Amino acid sequence: MPAILGTGEHRYRVVENFAKLPDGWQLTDVASVAVDSKDQIYVFNRGAHPMVVLDREGNFLRSFGEGLFSRAHGLHIDADDNLYCTDDGDHTVRKCTTDGKVLLTIGIPEKPAPFMSGDPFHRCTHTALSPKGEIYVSDGYGNARVHKFTPDGKLLKSWGEPGTDPGQFNIVHNIATDADGWVYVADRENHRVQVFNGEGKYETQWNNLHRPCALCCCGGAKSPTFVIGELGPGMAVNRKVPNLGPRLSIVDAKGKRIARLGGEEGPGVASGKFLAPHGIALDSKGDIYVGEVGVTDWKTSFPDEEMPAAVRAARCLQKLERVRE
After folding, report:
1. How many CB atoms are located within 10 Å of the residue 261 CB?
2. What is the pLDDT of residues 225-268, one digit of tens each?
3. CA–CA separation, 271 and 305 (whole Å)
4. Beta-strand relationship, 192-196 and 183-187
5. What is the pTM of this model?
6. What stretches of residues are NHL repeats (predicted)?
7. 3-state secondary structure at position 32
């Protein structure tokens, strides 16, 4: 029987072997996912075919991005089905059509800003849009900043610096916005999501999270909810401690937890377990798609175990189907 995660109204059935790829293809790490207006699933991954497009049943539709992307990291899709692809390998954000035509590039490919300089970009991680179409970029591994750009890519402002105080970041890993223009930032190694207004003014933070990595705003304009992908322990000393993830948490607009999916007994490849949730998207039916970087994270979680071939082949993308009966 397929595993069921969650309780009450937030119950999800794990769809086994969701992605049906052409013979010989592998996704390897799936850094991020997005869903368009037709419920097509865009799978931004670190395999030979960086953008793989599937339908809701997991059937392969097309691919693109071969030779274009260096290292997939973040993916966001707007109301017009434009894709914003964040590549932390060559320090760029590319706005693309759904067939891969590049409409805009922000950043200079293979030209990172100096480490922790605050200038865009040094291993940028993700994007989100304001209600006016302005582009927020989390930046990321070699910076501790959020940048705000005009819709055509001109820098408006930046905020953030390294540290643990409000408005400071320790790996600014993901970013999301809501219909009112609030900006939500996954401050991963500070174990929190920080909330800002559209101009970068700190408002509040959500705690009681463990290495929040993926961040998805959903649930509609009037009552937004958020699905947060949390990584498990990253240190040997707490590697086997229970109740630290990896897992998904669903919270309301105040950060109050509504539901939690998985993570009680640590990472794994069994049905109902996660490896390293890194990107999350929902379709029109409320089903959740989870991209995981299980290949990269394997030695962190299982340093003494050989990685199963299935992890590289198929285990870095999961579909959780909402139980509706």
Report:
1. 24
2. 999 999 999 999 999 999 999 999 999 999 999 999 999 999 99
3. 19
4. antiparallel
5. 0.97
6. 128-152, 160-199
7. strand
